[in-house]
Amino acid sequence: KTIYVLNGPNLNLLGQREPEIYGSDTLADIETACTACSRGLGLTIEFRQSNSEGDLVDWVQEANSKGAGLIINPAAYTHTSIALLDALKAASIPKIELHLSNIHAREAFRQHSVTAAAADGVIMGFGATGYRLAIEALKSLIENRAS
Ligand code: DQA
Fold first, then answer.
1. N or C: which terminus of the chain has fewer CB atoms within 10 Å of its end residue's CB?
2. Is the model's pLDDT at 72 over the cut of 90?
3. Average pLDDT over residues 46-69
4. Across the beta sheet with 121-124, what order do the strands follow?
5. Could you tell me if the CB of 101 is within 6 A of ligand 1?
6. How many degrees, rounded to 5, is the angle at CA 23 between CA 21 and CA 29?
7. How far is the CA of 43 from the centre of ligand 1 (A)?
């Protein structure tokens, strides 16, 4: 089984971008940890990042057409993107929204997620560890759907 881990805008800057909020791990560090975690669970991983909303929409559609599992950190598009919400709603696959920070503890404009309504569940506030937690949660979603 394949899982897509999609990362939105500015997450390519992790490690140097507001490390007091997002931590010191780079996206490459997180990808390495996700690859190891997925392998241990018998999952194949497609790990991607884009600053473009359209790329993320295309990749959600691609994950759905392949019947993959999906983890998405939509980053700032979380708070604005109806296009991503619609893409996620159209994807009938197991899907998890993920945030490094606890968006409810931040500025008012970050406290609402436009996209989360289309996710099976949301993991936030655990920093880079959240990616591992999301992979484990996705694995159990996949297993529960199969049974
Ligand atoms: C984020 C939270 C968003 O509000 C922000 O725009 C991001 C990252 C997080 O992972 O905590 O870029 O999705």
1. C
2. yes
3. 98
4. 44-49, 2-7, 69-73, 95-99, 121-124
5. yes
6. 150
7. 26
Tokens 């945030």 map to which residue? 99
Domains of the chain listed by start with CATH number: 2-146 (3.40.50.9100)
Beta carbon of 76 within 6 Å of any ligand 1 atom: yes
Query: Is residue 99 within 6 Å of ligand 1 at its C-beta?
Result: yes
pTM of the model: 0.97
Of 47, 26, 29, nearest in space to 38 by CA: 47
In this structure, the number of other CB atoms found within 10 A of the CB of residue 100 comes to 23
pLDDT at position 64? 98
pLDDT in tens, 19-47: 999 999 999 999 999 999 999 999 999 99
Residue 146: what pLDDT?
A: 83
pLDDT score at 101: 98
CA angle 77, 92, 10 (to 5 degrees): 20
Distance 147 CA to ligand 1 centre (A): 34
d(CA 95, CA 142): 9
